[in-house]
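hiii, so i know i said id send this last week but things got crazy w the move. better late than never?? heres the sequnce for the chain we talked about at the cafe, plus the structure i predicted for it. fair warning i was half asleep when i ran it
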Amino acid sequence: MRRLAFIVLLLGFGCAASSLALKAFWPGSRGDVSLSAGDVVELDDEGTELVLETFRVPKYPSGKPRQFESEVRLVGKGVGAPVRATVRVNHPLRWNGFWIYQMSYDAATEQTTVLTLVRDPWLGLAAFGGGLLLLGALLGCVGGWAADGGASV
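okay and structure toks below
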């Protein structure tokens, strides 16, 4: 069991380290865009566009913002049928390798939203490596790390 745990840990570390090394050479992309209703931003070279349909700021009775959310639509050749989704704080839209986050808004007018667009092609490899690291650690705890089966020194 110890040997299996060690191998799984090494594989996990290798995947996580590889994702970091690959990211240094092919980093993906990240950018913030400010949009008002009806504005369009191009996501990729295939003509996929993100359209802001509406932006809302629901409020508590005290007047403080409870949430801010953007209704968006993805259109273009790479999409097929248009995709409609709501992007909220802490609830990003994940689509075709993109993560679209609700970051901020113009508090003065409450008409403009700021979305962060992230494309990280190595995120899956890093997550897989992290899962292997966790699995290896669990196997090591269950099987015991010490050569004599887990006896203390």
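btw The beta strands are 29-36, 40-42, 49-56, 69-75, 83-88, 93-95, 98-105, 112-119. thought thatd interest u
miss u guys!!
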